Structure formats: C-alpha cells, structure tokens
C-alpha cells in the first residue's frame, strides 16, 4: 500500500494510478447516482405474459371516463406509452388498463402500498410494474427506506424522451410531485391528475397554475360525485 510521500517505481506508476482512479470512481457522485438508477431499473417487474386476471373481465374501460378522453386526444393512438404513478391494484378505477385492452398501450405501473402492489401483480397487466413510494419532497431524508423514490429519479429511470400519458394519483401529494419534476425536460403529451372533488379553490389554482406555466391547457374535468373525486385532464400540443 502506497502512502503520501512514497517514491513509486516508474514501472508501478500505471498500477497505482489505476488504483486511485478506481477509488475516485467509487466515490464519484455521478457514478453513485448512475448505480442507484440502475438498481431501481433492476427492480422493475416485467409482464409475465399470463392471461389477465380481472374481477370484471368483460369490461373495456375501468376509468371514470379518462381513458375515453385520452384515446380521443391521441387520435385513438395504438401502442402508446404511459407512466401510471399511484396505480393501485391495477384494475379498480384504472385509467391505464382500458388503454392496454383497447389500444395495446404499454408502460410502467408504480405503486407504493405493498397490499395494492401484490394485487396489481396478480392482475397480470401487460405493463411493467414497480413497487415504489414516491417522495413528496426534493430529497430523501436520513430515514428513507429502500422503497422511496424521488419523482425526478423516476423519470430518469424510465429514460424516455416521449411519454403519451402521465397519470398521477398520490392522495394529496400531486402538487409536490409536479414541483419536483421539470416537465420541460420531458415530452409528456397528456397529464391526468386525480384530486378530491372538494379540493379548495386555492389548491385547484395552484395545480392548474403549475401546469399552465409548463405549457398545459385544461382539456377536461371529470367529476365523480359518488366517490367524491375530480380528475383534471391536461394536454400540451
């Protein structure tokens, strides 16, 4: 082991330099982050190819109307790509399941709740699945678990320049998610945000204001009085 002040024989210089380079790369934040993203990508569960296992196999649309709106906005596009954040059990009120069934869309289903995620896997969706809890802040705290993922890291992990649909259902943390993601760095055509029907005017204006500053217009409001839900469909030309 060479220490500071040691005279290194000329024939050993290359070897010592290689050792130093290996240590530097191991401590390099860029290398660490790259390895971190790679670890998350390795956690993605690919579709198993088994037949769907749905509670209502005869249905084609499980949403409150969002799927129909999305297909209309995309010109009934087939084989589109979605990122579904807060995918639940993959069937109940799912915005993306109908896109799979009707137009062969694919994408990534993200769910943090372990019970819901287990149910999601048993549906045998055609999309990839990832168990992850999306953090609402800009950085993980010291107590962060290995299932917590920053919104910006999620987009980096997906590594796509174009996303047809971003569906967000984070039970009140939607605004934090939007602040943490620079949608100007990604081409996302449609964003659907699920909110409570009794959302305050201030919260509504905050969300719509953030989206407007990112170049999105409100395409549709879909209100479900029975379940007290309001879905806002944003589109960007």
TrEMBL record:
The signal sequence is: none
CC terms in the record's Gene Ontology section: endoplasmic reticulum membrane; Golgi apparatus; late endosome membrane; plasma membrane
Read off the InterPro entries from this record: EGF_Rcpt_Signaling_Reg
* Domain of life per record: Eukaryota
A Gene Ontology biological process term? endoplasmic reticulum to Golgi vesicle-mediated transport
UniProt name for this protein: Protein star
Q: Which organism is it from?
A: Plakobranchus ocellatus
The organism's taxonomy opens as: Eukaryota, Metazoa, Spiralia, Lophotrochozoa, Mollusca
